[in-house]
């Protein structure tokens, strides 16, 4: 038995999305086909409106406006630049309300094995921005992974080798390493614990 | 931090679907916003094409055509009518390729507590069809639940009380009760086992 074609077509389209298997896809398609027409129109409209999302020409973040809300906010601190490898990390940091500087979103971390070299990762744009804005501090906020470390090291080396072109050396910082909320020592890896001891904080 | 509005709008629309929480909704919305435009157009088109799904005026099934493929297929056996409470049960039975009769899809099982009386469940249409087509056998294929039993009993009573109007009494059957593939006796309820013993089959 074939399902009605519109249903199996929608089910197929949904099964292309991450985390949606064929069974859930069919269930969703059936649900959508049975609910009121206006709700489907809202969903269609939301999909069509995605084309209004732009990349900010200054920081590379996704936004409805160019420059984005953050780049066009005069109250943000121009002296600190936070570099992230994914716009979702920017959103996550913003949600903590603990950072008020500027951002730059790389296209990706540097992953030589996948052919993502510094150029593809967006380093040219990052260094143009640094030359233009001369932030005093650059905060590296990457995942704590091999690629994160590699990319972080690349930025550090390039900053010191371009000292003359830049005319100064910005302070380079990274997110603190240590225990996370709810961690217990028994389940935490040795490296994290050794870093947490090294950078222990006064209470 | 607010996400770009088109993204949070789509994420909201997706979170209205069953089985999709806010986190998966955001992940899906982000994925959809980042993939190629044509793929989104296919998804939008699939959603728009849902309006081509009709209800078959004979059997109540969902189909692209009216009458549906099954009702308009002359090779199907007119003498058996299978009554289901959900079009997905029809699709499931068809996928087994073990039934070649006709169908009727109720709007719902009878659920008095939720105000779904025989009229709302679609009994008027079912009995008009029986009067018109006079099938020799009516196969009841409902979920094995309280509501399924109630609805099945209702059909049985109404058939015998309308014997004169109908001019005959069709044979009423139900799906066999017994062990399912892979069941072991230890985990099977007593009622199912007692039915499986009562209706034991020659091998």
Automatic annotation (TrEMBL), chains A, B:
<keyword id="KW-0862">Zinc</keyword>
<dbReference type="InterPro" id="IPR000093">
    <property type="entry name" value="DNA_Rcmb_RecR"/>
</dbReference>
<keyword id="KW-0234">DNA repair</keyword>
<keyword id="KW-0863">Zinc-finger</keyword>
<dbReference type="Pfam" id="PF21175">
    <property type="entry name" value="RecR_C"/>
</dbReference>
<comment type="function">
    <text>May play a role in DNA repair. It seems to be involved in an RecBC-independent recombinational process of DNA repair. It may act with RecF and RecO.</text>
</comment>
<feature type="domain" description="Toprim">
    <location>
        <begin position="79"/>
        <end position="180"/>
    </location>
</feature>
<dbReference type="GO" id="GO:0006281">
    <property type="term" value="P:DNA repair"/>
</dbReference>
<dbReference type="GO" id="GO:0003677">
    <property type="term" value="F:DNA binding"/>
</dbReference>
<keyword id="KW-0227">DNA damage</keyword>
<dbReference type="GO" id="GO:0008270">
    <property type="term" value="F:zinc ion binding"/>
</dbReference>
<dbReference type="GO" id="GO:0006310">
    <property type="term" value="P:DNA recombination"/>
</dbReference>
<dbReference type="InterPro" id="IPR023627">
    <property type="entry name" value="Rcmb_RecR"/>
</dbReference>
<feature type="zinc finger region" description="C4-type">
    <location>
        <begin position="56"/>
        <end position="71"/>
    </location>
</feature>
<keyword id="KW-0479">Metal-binding</keyword>
<keyword id="KW-0233">DNA recombination</keyword>
<dbReference type="InterPro" id="IPR015967">
    <property type="entry name" value="Rcmb_RecR_Znf"/>
</dbReference>
<dbReference type="InterPro" id="IPR034137">
    <property type="entry name" value="TOPRIM_RecR"/>
</dbReference>
<dbReference type="Pfam" id="PF13662">
    <property type="entry name" value="Toprim_4"/>
</dbReference>
<dbReference type="InterPro" id="IPR006171">
    <property type="entry name" value="TOPRIM_dom"/>
</dbReference>
<protein>
    <recommendedName>
        <fullName>Recombination protein RecR</fullName>
    </recommendedName>
</protein>
<comment type="similarity">
    <text>Belongs to the RecR family.</text>
</comment>
<dbReference type="Pfam" id="PF02132">
    <property type="entry name" value="RecR_ZnF"/>
</dbReference>
<dbReference type="Pfam" id="PF21176">
    <property type="entry name" value="RecR_HhH"/>
</dbReference>
């Amino acid at each position: 038995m074939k399902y009605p074609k519109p249903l199996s077509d929608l089910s197929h389209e949904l099964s292309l999305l991450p985390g949606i298997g064929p069974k859930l896809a069919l269930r969703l398609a059936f649900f959508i086909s049975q609910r009121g027409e206006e709700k489907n129109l809202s969903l269609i409209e939301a999909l069509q409106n995605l084309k209004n999302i732009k990349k900010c020409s200054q920081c590379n973040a996704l936004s409805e406006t160019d420059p984005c809300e953050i780049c066009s906010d005069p109250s943000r601190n121009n002296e600190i630049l936070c570099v992230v490898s994914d716009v979702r990390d920017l959103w996550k940091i913003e949600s903590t309300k603990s950072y008020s500087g500027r951002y730059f979103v790389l296209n990706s971390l540097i992953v030589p094995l996948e052919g993502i070299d510094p150029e593809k990762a967006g380093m040219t744009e990052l260094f143009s921005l640094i030359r233009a804005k001369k932030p005093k501090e650059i905060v590296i906020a990457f995942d704590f992974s091999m690629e994160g470390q590699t990319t972080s090291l690349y930025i550090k080396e390039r900053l010191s080798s371009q000292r003359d072109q830049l005319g100064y050396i910005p302070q380079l910082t990274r997110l603190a390493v240590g225990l996370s909320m709810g961690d217990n020592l028994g389940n935490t890896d040795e490296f994290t614990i050794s870093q947490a001891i090294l950078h222990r904080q006064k209470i």
